Amino acid sequence: MKELAKSGGLAVELASAFDASPNPYVLLTPELRIAGVNQAYLDVTNSTRAAIIGEPLFSAFDSGPGDEAPENVRQVRASLERARDSRQRDHLPLVKFRIPRPLEDGSKVFEDRYWSATHTPILDDAGKVRFILQHTTDISELQRLRERSRAPESASAIDVMLGGAVLGRAEQVQEANRRLETERNRLMDMFMQAPGFVAVLSGPDHVFQMHNAAYAQLIGHRDISGKPVREALPEVVSQGYWEFLDSVYATGEPHQGRASELQLQRKPGSSLETVYLNFIYQPIRDATGAVAGIFVQGYDVTETVRSTDRQKLMIDELNHRVKNTLATVQSIAMQTARSHGDPHTFAAGFQARLLALSHTHDLLTRSHWEGADLDAILQHETEAHGSTRVSVNGPHVALPPAAALSLGMIFHELATNAAKYGALSAPDGRVLVDWALADQTRPRLQLVWREVGGPSVTPPGRKGFGSRLIERNVRHDLAGEVELDYADSGFTATFSIPLDREQGQ
To answer: What would the mean pLDDT of 258-281 be, rounded to a whole number?
Structure first.
């Protein structure tokens, strides 16, 4: 071939033989552009090298008006692509094209021509397709003679004499192949668009032959085609999945996994992530029944597993909180009963303390039990006494749930005691609450509850329920310190409570 001939005797002889062949040949690039042709091809297509070299195959020729070319072009293109992609020779028994033929007056007419075509991939040293060779045989005269001789009474004999039966079978085979190709494309579309991940592995080394978009997304869009699993996904080998594949290939028995944990690289260059997969490995058998590969199918259920874990954690936490709350209610009931011999006063005191506990629960529920604001708890427990009589002053402090519940009960007892015996029992009495945070690295709440303007105060002869509840909650539940001062000028309670204790636990 002149275009590709190199210096050297053998190359020149091969090129000359190619150009002298009576059969039409065209050499195409993998992009289906014309790289070279022989003289027979130029003669049959009535074209010149200068006009078609470098041009796309299907735009290099004028096929004339009203041509059936779109269907024929689709057939030829599909055959060329099959040869290129599979690196195997592909045949077209019968294809029709309209070829321009010039007339003496300079015009041209188009005539139908019938061809049988063979497409052969030419590989380089690396095994990649460098060119595709199209070899065509013109069977137009045979096809026309067959069509002219199709009288009902003579068609069978003529077909046998002229090879028409062979052509008829070729047409049937080609039509069957076309239907199979359509079905194959439909199945491939379903395969590629499947919502779950799918892959096909071949041979004992489990080489990736194909995989869909969901599989590509799962593994971070790595280039895995044609690679064995050990090379394509090295991180899965040490996690037992290679042994599962070997077992399926050796025994022919499928393997199924449910919420199986896998460390996988989801993005190029990133660290391994934990994913959970539902999957099945199914053997693919050849015509003899031997296992030839493995079909991989499954779903990424990571979010489902994590949601289930979160739900279990929430249920466990809820059970823990309910038990704690019931223990608190039981303690309140027992202590209140000890302080109130009369059932009516017991009921009133018990109900008031349950309402205080309920108020704090409401605040925690609004924040999904992530915590509550100290100021909000104070406002809840003292609002019944009027905003002008209770003054609060301090920075924003986010209390963890356990601290919020304990301080809610404490503030309720302090407010109740102030209303019965302290500053809030007098018309001009007031309560001043000030707080600050000390030591920001290990934050500690310093809070002072001070009553002014009330009746004179005398220390109690014995500890009542309120003081016992306060001391127990601060020292036991909050690991803090409290000092209760019954000065004549007014009651004062000073608290020092660590705020990182719950996080540490």
So the answer is: 89
